[in-house]
């Protein structure tokens, strides 16, 4: 117990602390060989293409080859798909393998941590029996679903709010003529 107190009373060397912090942060980031990944992936998004991409027959092929080598994906099929993508501007299935692999690379853990935090808010001890599909749907509704476009389309179709006083009143059935009133009269 005495050794623990002496360790607690020692002062922390700031230089050592910041060096350790820097090393730990560098270990969490991309390695030096992966620093080119963001640049290489730009060729997969038309908004980063030059205006005369049709004239440059081999545009982006070096980057796609580098991505395939780094991510261990068969190059030949992906390159064919990339060439088709350049000409037709439509993403073929052979190129989707590369795009989906790139999209699965975590840039930081913040997005995952937010997801787990939200999952903990939805999956409480009283709702511990939710299925994975239900939990996934609830998380989608909570974060990805944006109802504004659906609400606008509802109004454009001529529908009204439930609180709208100018809409037609609902025709209510007279309760005295209903089948249930006959049953109640029997009692």
TrEMBL record:
InterPro entries, alphabetized: HATC_C_dom (IPR008906), RNaseH-like_sf (IPR012337)
HAT C-terminal dimerisation domain mapped to chain residues: 98-143
PANTHER family on file: E3 SUMO-PROTEIN LIGASE KIAA1586, RAS-ASSOCIATING DOMAIN-CONTAINING PROTEIN
Entry-linked Pfam families: Dimer_Tnp_hAT
The name this protein goes by in its record: HAT C-terminal dimerisation domain-containing protein
């Amino acid at each position: 117990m005495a050794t623990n107190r002496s360790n607690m009373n020692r002062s922390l060397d700031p230089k050592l602390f910041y060096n350790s912090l820097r090393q730990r942060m560098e270990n969490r980031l991309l390695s030096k060989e992966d620093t080119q990944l963001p640049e290489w992936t730009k060729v997969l998004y038309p908004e980063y293409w030059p205006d005369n991409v049709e004239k440059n027959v081999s545009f982006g092929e070096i980057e796609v080859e580098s991505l395939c080598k780094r991510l261990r994906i068969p190059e030949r099929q992906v390159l064919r798909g990339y060439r088709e993508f350049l000409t037709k501007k439509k993403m073929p299935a052979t190129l989707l393998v590369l795009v989906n692999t790139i999209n699965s690379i975590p840039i930081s853990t913040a997005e995952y941590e937010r997801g787990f935090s939200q999952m903990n808010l939805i999956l409480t001890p009283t709702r511990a029996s939710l299925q994975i599909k239900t939990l996934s749907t609830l998380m989608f509704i909570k974060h990805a679903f944006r109802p504004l476009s659906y609400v606008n389309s509802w109004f454009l179709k001529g529908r009204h709010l439930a609180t709208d006083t100018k809409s037609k009143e609902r025709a209510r059935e007279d309760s005295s003529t209903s089948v249930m009133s006959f049953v109640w009269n029997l009692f």
